[in-house]
Design a protein that fits this description.
395 residues, alpha+beta, globular, Hypothetical protein af1432, 8 strands, 2 domains, SH3 type barrels
Length: 395
Amino acid sequence: MIQRLQGMNVPMVSVRGNQEPEAEWMAAAKSRAVEADHCLAQTGALLMELQQQFRMVERQRCIREIKPGQLSGCIRALASAMSHGVAQEPPVLQLSWGRHDLAGHLANTAFYSLLLATNVPKYLRGQRNTTSTELWDTLSQLCTAATMHDVGKLVDQSGQPVRPSYDEPNELSYVAADLEYQKHTKRGANAFRDAFHSTVTYVIANHHQRFNGRGFPQQPIPGGPECTGGMAGTRIHIFARLVALANTLDHLFGGRLQQSDLVSRLHTLVSIQQKEERFDPVLLNAAVRLIPPFPAGVQVELTDGRVAAVLRNNVNSPCRPTVVPLPAPDTLPEPDAQPVDLNTVTDVHIAKVAGVDVRSQLYNVPQLSPDPLDYWALRDVLSGIPEAQPEPAVV
C-alpha cells in the first residue's frame, strides 16, 4: 500500500494504531489492504512476465512463427490471478508507467479486459451463453485475445517485420481516411487464423469495431453490395467489445500521469460515450465506476475550502468519494476526524487536486438496471479452482 501511495506522489498518510477505539475496524481494514496488495503484487509480476515473454516473441523474424504455447502459460496464470482476487481499485497510475512499447500495451490491455470481465460476470455469461463451469476457459480465451490483439502492427503491408511506434494512431486518434493503419487488424488475424481459436482471431480482426457501427474493418450491410460499415451493438462479439474498451483505456491513460489527469481523462471518456455511444454501455458503465478519478490517499481541496485525503472510492458516484478532512495541507488528520461521504453531502464536492481546478471535469455515471457490477458472484464461482502458475517461456 505504501508503495502504491509513493507511486502516486502522496506525501503523507495516517495510520491509526491498535490503541484507538477503532482497533477492530482498523485490523479488518489492514487485513483487506494486505490481501489487496498481495493480489496487486501477484498481478504486477505476471504482467511483467507477460511483457518479457512477448518481447522475446517480438524479436522473432516472422510473427507467423509465434506458437500459442509460448505465451499460454503466463496468460492462463494471469487470468487465474485476476479472477481469484483482483483489487477493486485498479492501479492505473502504476500501469501508465509500464507501457512504453507494444509488449507493455498488450499486457495492460489484458489486465483491463480481465478487470472488466471479472466485474460483469452475469453480463459476460449472458452474452457468451456459458455455464459457471465454462467461465474459467472463457477468461483464459479472453486474455489470449487481448494479449494478441495488436500483433498485426508487427508487419508492414508487404509482410516484413517492423517495430511499431506509439506515435502512431490509436482508437482515440485515428481518422477514417487512415486506411493503412486500419489494415493491422486483418494482418494480425490472417497471420494467426490457423494458430488460435477462431474467437481469438475474431477479436484480433475486430477490436476496433464500435458499438455505434462506425468502427472497422467494414462489413457488408443488408441492402445492397455497395452498403458497408462496421458491425454494431451486440452483433459484435462480447470479447471484441471488451478488448475495444480495454485497448482504449490503456491509450487513454498512457504516459506519465499526474493526479489531476485521472479525472480529466475519465471525463473525456464519458463525454465521448455520451456523444457517440462508441462502447458497450454496460462495459463503459463498469469501467468508469471501477477506475477511481480520485484514488485513495490523494489529497484534495473541497469547495468549502477544506483540505482532505481521499479514503475510498464510491462506485455509484466516483466523483464523490469518501474523504477525511485534514487540519492543513500535507498534515495528518486529527485523531477524532470523521470521514465525510461526499455522496451524502450535496452542497460540497471536490474542487482541486494537486492545485488543479477539476470542477469542470466532474462527471456523473448513469445507473443501469440491473447493476452491471457483480464481482463477488464470479469469485464465488471460481473460488474452488486452484490458481495456475506461470510456465517458463518456450522460445
